[in-house]
Design goal:
2 helices
Length: 72
Amino acid sequence: MGQPDDVRFKVVINEEEQYSVWWSDRANPPGWQDEGTEGTRQECLDHIDRVWKDMRPRSVRTARETTQGVNA
């Protein structure tokens, strides 16, 4: 069952550069900050799909780059 179009959501991001959708009228969960995008749930999901190309947490990406000496 879908969400009504009048329910607003926002995109949030954590320190590991992972994205999620959260209700715009609620406080962010601990460890998450506003990314800057708001809209319907689908608009937020579409935005995340466009911008989140590497789903590995930042710490994993950084560790791999450090150990392999490459920009993965």
